[in-house]
Recover the amino acids of this structure.
């Protein structure tokens, strides 16, 4: 089947060539989501087809699944299996001959099967032995007021509607059939003043047949939407609007002119009908089926923002890939609405899985439009620490431009959007109690997340361990009692209350357990000027600091003057043999050792003289 390019999206990150219910190739980052949902759908096949509500094969639903799998770009084998099963007996879907409706051809079913066959790479003009295009031509009015309309050929009545007409248009456009223009013209008659499409097409009133057990009456519908002749016949359908926009985009891509306004008006009607969460309603219920079809149509028309919002709503009804408990075996399945999803959380899927199959088959393709799944980068301006009640700046990177982001920290929540560089900055308030707080960020879809953590610290006064005195310019170790391992701080000296603080050191200890500890910090350098100083340590976290006092002394000058002997060389007498200067024998202030030596020498001379005199007297000498 001819693949259409979504208008205006080729150059965008999330934009890709989409096919099938319009055609898509998901971004690589969405591969896991596509694979899981595709696997769930493929796993629901029974003898290569999806079963209906009562267990028999549902051919139309099986075509829906084929189209969605093609959009997601997954499960090629399942796509082939479905096509093979449908080709085995096309008549079972496009006619009621098996039920006695001889010679019948159902227009919408024939058009839908032709689209499915082409999407699977088969020839609709020779599909299971049936020329689907020729059968489709046989249902189309060639002239008159109903020219271009595809009606059911059936003894049971005509139940054709706008939904079927959209598939008729797509099949004829793809085949290049000359009746495509008439079919498009008739489809446009179903578009209403606000751009939306009604679900019913022209019908004359038919009363109920009393001979049948069911109500087979048909309400009248005017030939065009807005005709006031018949009241209440212009029931708007956003399913029909979405499918019509997709069909018209494919026709435009095939070279058919004059469809731009109808496409834009239809897309605008869908966007206007969106709720703030991206959803659209059918019968008053926000649901995945309608919203998923609208997402693809909006992307077809070039409204990426609205398309993404719709896809993100569908993602909220999808069983996540890490589901556990009752939904552990249903990962990737899509619920019809929030009530169905909530019920399944505890009870699992109901015994009749039809609603889940139908929702997934029709809505799954929209998942290709989700923003790239990625782990967002989340950082804080506080190096991983913060004070109780402190406002902390959080930076989130890796977003798409304009993508919404929500940041949660404890009970505080902040919301914003990314700038053109895919970056957002938000402030969150830390809790009033100390402890580790997870800061979690979520982008535009549940798969786009990132987180970091901050250790919230209570106010504290540190106890500092430093020497009582240090020499000027000396490097010394400082013990800080009360810091948490990894907490940043700055040490400063302040002298005499002058307020002239000199930065001494900044340290970021690491490798601990995060408990309170005494941390030794080497390399703190004392000021060059001696004096009394206040040494302060202030944490990067508010209200956490400590101080002490210490004395900075002058550096030691070393040995005194004359210590090298140069000035004491004259002390023993003059070199010219003159009289000895007794004053020179006295020690100078720095020569205590020399004084002792001289005194000992004098004492020895005197003692020697006295002993000699006594000996001589003892010998009688006078």
């Amino acid at each position: 089947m001819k693949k259409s390019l979504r208008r205006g999206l080729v150059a965008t990150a999330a934009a890709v060539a989409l096919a099938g219910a319009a055609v898509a190739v998901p971004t690589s980052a969405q591969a896991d989501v596509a694979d899981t949902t595709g696997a769930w759908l493929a796993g629901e096949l029974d003898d290569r087809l999806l079963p209906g509500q009562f267990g028999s094969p549902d051919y139309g639903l099986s075509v829906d699944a084929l189209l969605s799998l093609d959009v997601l770009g997954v499960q090629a084998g399942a796509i082939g299996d479905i096509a093979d099963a449908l080709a085995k007996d096309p008549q079972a879907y496009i006619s009621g001959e098996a039920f006695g409706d001889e010679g019948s051809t159902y227009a919408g079913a024939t058009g839908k099967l032709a689209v499915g066959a082409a999407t699977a790479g088969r020839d609709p003009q020779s599909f299971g032995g049936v020329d689907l295009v020729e059968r489709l031509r046989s249902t189309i009015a060639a002239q008159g007021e109903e020219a271009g309309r595809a009606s059911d050929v059936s003894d049971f009545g005509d139940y054709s509607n706008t939904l079927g007409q959209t598939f008729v248009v797509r099949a004829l456009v793809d085949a290049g059939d000359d009746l495509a223009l008439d079919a498009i013209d008739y489809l446009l008659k179903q578009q209403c003043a606000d751009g939306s499409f009604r679900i019913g097409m022209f019908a004359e009133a038919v009363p109920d047949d009393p001979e049948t057990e069911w109500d087979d009456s048909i309400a009248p519908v005017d030939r065009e939407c807005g005709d006031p002749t018949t009241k209440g016949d212009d029931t708007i359908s956003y399913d029909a609007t979405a499918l019509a926009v997709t069909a018209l985009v494919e026709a435009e891509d095939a070279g058919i002119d004059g469809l731009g306004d109808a496409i834009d008006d239809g897309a605008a009607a869908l966007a206007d009908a969106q709720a703030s969460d991206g959803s659209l309603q059918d019968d008053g219920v926000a649901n995945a089926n309608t919203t998923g079809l609208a997402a693809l149509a909006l992307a077809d028309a070039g409204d990426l923002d609205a398309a993404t919002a719709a896809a993100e709503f569908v993602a909220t009804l999808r069983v996540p890939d890490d589901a556990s408990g009752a939904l552990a075996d249903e990962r990737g399945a899509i619920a019809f609405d929030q009530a169905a999803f909530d019920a399944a959380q505890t009870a699992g899927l109901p015994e009749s899985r039809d609603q889940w199959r139908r929702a997934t088959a029709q809505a799954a393709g929209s998942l290709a439009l989700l923003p790239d799944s990625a782990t967002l980068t989340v950082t804080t301006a506080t190096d991983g620490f913060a004070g109780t009640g402190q406002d902390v700046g959080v930076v989130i990177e890796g977003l798409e431009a304009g993508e919404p982001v929500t940041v949660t920290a404890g009970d505080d929540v902040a919301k914003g959007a990314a700038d053109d560089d895919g970056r957002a900055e938000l402030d969150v308030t830390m809790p009033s109690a100390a402890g580790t707080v997870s800061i979690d960020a979520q982008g535009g879809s549940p798969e786009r997340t990132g987180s970091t953590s901050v250790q919230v610290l209570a106010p504290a006064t540190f106890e500092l361990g430093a020497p009582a005195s240090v020499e000027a310019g000396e490097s010394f170790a400082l013990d800080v009692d009360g810091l948490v391992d990894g907490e940043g701080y700055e040490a400063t000296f302040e002298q005499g209350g002058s307020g002239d603080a000199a930065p001494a050191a900044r340290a970021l200890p690491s490798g601990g357990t995060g408990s309170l500890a005494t941390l030794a910090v080497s390399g703190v350098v004392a000021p060059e000027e001696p004096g009394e100083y206040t040494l302060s340590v202030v944490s990067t976290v508010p209200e956490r600091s400590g101080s002490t006092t210490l004395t900075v002394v002058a550096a030691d000058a070393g040995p005194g003057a004359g210590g090298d002997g140069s000035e004491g060389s004259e002390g023993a007498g003059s070199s010219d043999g003159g009289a000895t200067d007794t004053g020179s024998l006295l020690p100078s202030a720095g020569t205590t050792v020399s004084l002792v030596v001289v005194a000992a020498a004098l004492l020895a001379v005197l003692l020697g003289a006295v002993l000699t005199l006594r000996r001589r007297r003892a010998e009688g000498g006078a």
